[in-house]
Amino acid sequence: MYIDPGSGSYLVQVIIAAVLGFLFYFKNLWFRIRTFFKKKKVDSEHDSSQD
Amino acid sequence: MTAVKTEFQPHPASYRDPSGFVFRYDGQWYRQVNASYEPHYRQLMHSGLYAELTRQELLLPYREIEENITGHPYWFKTLLPEQLSLIAYPEEWSPAQLKKAALCTLAISRMAITHGMILKDATPRNIQFVRGKAMLIDSLSFETYDPSLPWVAYRQFCECFLYPLYLQHYQGEGTHRTIIAWPDGIEAAAVAKALPFRSRRNLGVWLHVLLPARVKKSGRSSSAAASGFDKNKMIHLLANLESIIRDLPTDASGAAGWSQYYEKTILSQAYLQEKEKLFRQYLEKIAFSSALDLGANDGYFSWILAEKQASVVAVDSAWQCIDNLVNQLAARKGKNILPLCVDLANPTPATGFMNAERLPFTSRFRSSLVTALALVHHLSLGRNIPLSLVADFFSRLTADNLIIEFVPQSDPKARELLAGRTITGYDKESFESCFGRHYIIETQSSIPGTDRILYLMKKRSA
């Protein structure tokens, strides 16, 4: 198969990438905050969460 | 060379891509790579991408031939790919198969990017199931990756893979009907209208369906905003598509689940065991290299056929059955069964330009052995197809033998289909006379505990 170059919806992908980047940023931030507080709270317990 | 050279025949669907084309020559399928594609082809081979893709069985392997078979001046290379005995179309896949093909396409895209390349097209038509695995068959689908540009095949991927799967998730009618109606992919605007309101709770639907539909409607130029893309964004986009498709439930495990469906379609376990015993006896009497299991249901008898080392095509009109068989194959590592979703009263037609790009079902699946268990009553009583036409149809698909079960009008399942009617010309004598025109009846046995008869027939030589 072959499609004409330029028929990809570039604008759509630029917007989607921006939304995904935004979500990714906040997800990371959220994990960092959570890990920070969890470590403070339970120093002796094993942390089984992400990161 | 002393022999007279036969003419090469270009594949009727291989005319779109200026990078090369597929042709038949001397009984084999070849692919020509044109000179214009040379830099991309070299990168595919020298970057390690080809080796990696074939190692992971994501790309159909091929051999390079240093002979210009077509004689074209713009020839660069001839490829001889591994030859496939069967070609099935996405119009014949169940949702589970479309999902596997989509994930295969995304895995290839991700791997290509790490080798500085990208897929320039993303259509299920470039995927075939080989030894039970989804594989890309179009080796000219790659091009050098420019990180500043978004994915050229994004829209095609959505229209051909993601949208039929979304429709399946929300409506559950199977993906094959969507693809028959929209052979080159369904547009975002049509999908947006068809999806129920509850789909608006899904972020993926907003991003990949509603947004493209809105952008298209607003008529904004898409290439104007091409700047501002990079490799990281591309990886996020592909990962997002992959997680959406991987996590999207598309099977029949809801309230109208599989087990209920299966229970409704068979008479009893005792009947199944008696039939299996006879079936196995019949198989001992014949030899076959390929088998076509028509009305395969969940593939119970396809597995028995597969034990004989034959390549088996299992066909059923219910996508739930085919989905179930696809999942069984993945779990049991079955490699020689190809399950397909085909309505035998309306099999896949010849489609595409000049009706020649895609061949009809009837000319692709002729097999050494055809089996039709508990099927004839569905066609004759359920769909009003006369026995003579059913016999004619089956004989076109059979090369050597037929194992067929006759279900008389007195059978409880036949009575359900008849709903009080009586059909003339549907009895044992008519059945034997109609099939006798095409076949010699070798053996017949009543299935104990039922009025059903299992036949082993041999195709009459034409």
Low-confidence sequence ranges of chain B? 254-259
Overall SS class of chain A: mainly alpha
Gap between N and C termini of chain A:
42 Å
By DSSP (H or I, 4+ residues per run), the number of helices of chain B equals: 16
What summary fits the major beta sheet of chain A? none
The percent range for helix content of chain A is 55-70%
Q: Which pair of chains has the greatest number of interface residues, and how are they split between the two chains?
A: A-B, 20 and 40 residues
**Over the alpha carbons, how many angstroms does the gyration radius of chain A reach?**
20 Å
Order of helices and strands of chain A: H
Task: Bin the strand percentage of chain A.
Answer: under 5%
Amino-to-carboxy terminus distance of chain B = 37 Å
In oligomeric terms, what are we looking at?
Answer: heterodimer
Mean pLDDT of chain B: 92
Instruction: Give the number of DSSP strands of chain A.
Output: 0
Give the CA-based shape of chain B. Answer: globular
Tell me, briefly, the overall form of chain A.
rod-shaped
Helix content of chain B: 25-40%
Structural class of chain B: alpha/beta
Outline:
Chain A is mostly helical. Chain A has one helix at 10-41. In chain B, helix 4 (154-171) crosses helix 5 (175-181), helix 6 crosses helix 7 (203-218) and helix 14 packs parallel to helix 16.
Can you describe this structure?
The complex is a heterodimer of chains A (51) and B (462). Chain A is an all-alpha fold and 51 residues long. Helices cover 63% and strands 0% of the residues of chain A. Chain A has one helix spanning 10-41. The model of chain A is unreliable at 1-8 and 47-51 (pLDDT under 50). Chain B is an alpha/beta fold and 462 residues long. In chain B, 39% of the residues lie in helices and 19% in strands. Chain B contains 16 helices and 16 strands. Chain B has helices at residues 38-46, 49-55, 95-114, 154-171, 175-181, 188-194, 203-218, 231-247, 258-265, 269-285, 300-306, 319-332, 376-382, 387-397, 412-418, 428-436, and strands spanning 9-10, 20-25, 28-34, 62-65, 75-81, 117-119, 127-130, 133-136, 142-144, 290-294, 311-316, 337-341, 367-372, 398-406, 439-446, 453-459. In chain B, the strands form four sheets. Chain B has a seven-stranded mixed sheet with strand order 12-11-10-13-14-16-15, sandwiched between helices. In chain B, helix 3 (95-114) runs antiparallel to helix 8 (231-247), helix 6 (188-194) crosses helix 7 and helix 14 packs parallel to helix 16. The radius of gyration of chain B is 24 Å and the shape is globular. The A-B interface holds A 1-3, 5-17, 19-21, 24 and B 16-19, 120-121, 123, 125-126, 138, 141, 149-156, 207-208, 211-212, 215-216, 220-226, 228-229, 232-234, 236-237, 240.
